[in-house]
Amino acid sequence: MVPRRGSRANLAVILRDTLDMGTPDTVDVTRITVDPRQRGGQPCVRGLRVTVWDVLEMLASGMTEDEILSDYPYLERPDFAAVYAYAAQMGRESLSR
What we know:
4 helices, 4% strand
């Protein structure tokens, strides 16, 4: 069954599929940059003006990685693994506080 666009099931499929992309220890998270002069210091993808949160919001809205790559051709497929790893690390850190 293919989840409906924008459904919670779609997000679950995305998260499940990312498990095969590596762990935060094996993903190149140096693709995520933080510059206080860019996007208010939010974590961005490779110094671009696309934040980790922008990518996650697009995915949560139901866009696929391929659709995002089509709309943002300067993004690269490995950027997604870095976004997922960064977000996972932020989630773990917020839970451990």
